[in-house]
Write a structure and sequence with these properties.
Elements: H1 2-20, E1 23-27, E2 30-31, E3 36-45, E4 51-58, E5 62-67, E6 74-78, E7 86-95, E8 99-109, E9 116-119, E10 122-126, E11 131-134, E12 144-147, H2 155-181
Parallel strand pairs: 2-12
Antiparallel strand pairs: 1-3, 3-8, 4-7, 4-10, 5-8, 6-7, 9-12, 10-11
């Protein structure tokens, strides 16, 4: 029974990979506010038709610092406008069946971001002109990065902690001096 379940799950996952026509992911999966973060889109091709373009839309809350391209590929960054998101498009390369590529870029995460998810929709384009999107309503869910908020101490709490530390230090000095006299 367990063997049939494992075989069924394996077959179902292969069908999902086959029908999606490619796999994309974004690493790392988490970040913090104010971080300088190197992300990499990973695109794999389980299809016979080569992938020739990978495009990612960067969400509000990240500022582009730099982009790199794998050997044989070019990278083009397009800044955001009032009506469009900032995007990076890698092209003029090929990902053949059974291969994958990483497409790195460097961003600065906004310091005022709160906990939650940053969504990075991705589109791949094939040699025959067809494309798949990992976005709402697309081939799959868009890659997301979890923002882990940093705990911020208010000025009042910082003052209270400093006062406590000063009091503790005073008690330690007093105890040390009283032992020396005895």
């Amino acid at each position: 029974m367990a063997h049939r379940t494992v075989a069924w799950l394996l077959a179902a996952s292969l069908v999902v990979i086959r029908t999606a026509g490619g796999q994309v992911m974004l690493a790392p999966p988490t970040t913090t506010p104010a971080a300088w973060e190197r992300f990499a889109v990973r695109a794999a091709n389980p299809n016979d038709t080569p992938i020739v373009s990978v495009t990612i839309r960067l969400p509000d809350g990240v500022r582009m610092l730099g982009v790199d391209a794998p050997t044989g590929w070019t990278a083009r960054y397009t800044a955001a406008t009032d009506s469009t998101s900032q995007t990076i498009e890698w092209g003029q390369g090929r990902i053949e069946r059974g291969e994958f590529r990483e497409f790195p870029f460097l961003v600065r995460v906004a310091p005022d971001l709160r906990s939650g998810d940053l969504v990075f929709p991705v589109r791949i384009t094939r040699l025959n002109g067809s494309s798949l999107e990992w976005a709402a309503g697309g081939a799959g869910a868009p890659p997301t990065v979890r923002v882990r908020a940093i705990t911020v101490v208010s000025p009042a709490a910082g003052f209270a902690l400093a006062a406590f530390a000063l009091g503790l230090a005073t008690v330690a000095i007093a105890l040390t001096l009283s032992r020396r006299r005895a």
